[in-house]
């Protein structure tokens, strides 16, 4: 029943379906965070199914690169599943502080695979042949065992995350569905790894069929239940509001006060500015500031501060052409050129050098325009725009952020 002629077409079908889901996630002009993470997750599942089919057909004995990226994809399933669940439940909440740490192990496996498959063809075939013969005793098996342990750990965190919202009656169907799907995924991973390591071909093929079933279900489910996860986000937000640490604060005034500290006092220029120091200036607790930024401004502390820094840096780069980039970097509050370049590229899509180069080309074009027409190009201030002076601004410095009885 589970002979190669039957299961491998299903594995290739599931692989193609996964790649189709990747395209589906990336097509919308406005891509949500969960769409990008979901695309990576389906890409990993597609690679796993494709390589599993090649292993069943023993294609790797002749074309060893037919299983390239199998280990990397396996190791990425755990982090991607956790981050995808987090994005579904908390769509507006900043992800873990440094998301790159979650992909440290997959990154190392990727480098390892590049080195392994970059060797002479005969050496690769010989090693993979030995791996098939002695299975779990081969040195390659430790990578898969480590991946299994890593995936188990991540799914443990995923279960714990789901338990925080399982008490909400309106979400029982959604949470049950995610629990079942997560459990099937873990069992499928175990079946694939241990089925191969101990020569249990039936178990290995069952694991592949389970992954194919998961992909097929995730492909069809949105068509039948397009708003299945909508109550999940809505009810989580409601529960979080009931336990909010911001009750009693005037949120509009808090936002104005932060803007004033940034726009007028320019606190962002301080390279030592921290969440704690800013919350002290605002007269609130650090955890209240974190919740306010995450839930009401949909950003994190570092992204919020860097936004003001980059805004001023862009202005200086365009107006102060004689000022070097490094001095601008330190002036606006960054303490290293690398962090400045990373933040600048993230906000503007360009490097500071590229932006300045583009700006320096404009005067030449203006001179050419004047030479041709005899009329200088329109400058700033001719469009009827009026900027308020300092005396026109309304200060909120002395107004209490804590709201009166409301």
UniProtKB/TrEMBL annotation:
Residues 351-384 are annotated as: Disordered. Residues 256-358 form the HTH araC/xylS-type domain. Residues 358-367 have a biased composition (Basic and acidic residues). The keyword Transferase does not apply. The chain crosses the membrane at residues 6-27, 39-57, 63-89, 101-119, 139-157, 177-196, 202-221. SUPFAM superfamilies: Homeodomain-like. Keywords: DNA-binding, Membrane, Transcription, Transcription regulation, Transmembrane, Transmembrane helix. The keyword Iron does not apply. InterPro entries: Homeodomain-like_sf (IPR009057), HTH_AraC (IPR018060). It comes from the Bacteria. GO terms for molecular function: DNA-binding transcription factor activity; sequence-specific DNA binding. Gene3D superfamilies: Homeodomain-like. This is AraC family transcriptional regulator. The lineage of its organism: Bacteria, Pseudomonadati, Spirochaetota, Spirochaetia, Leptospirales.
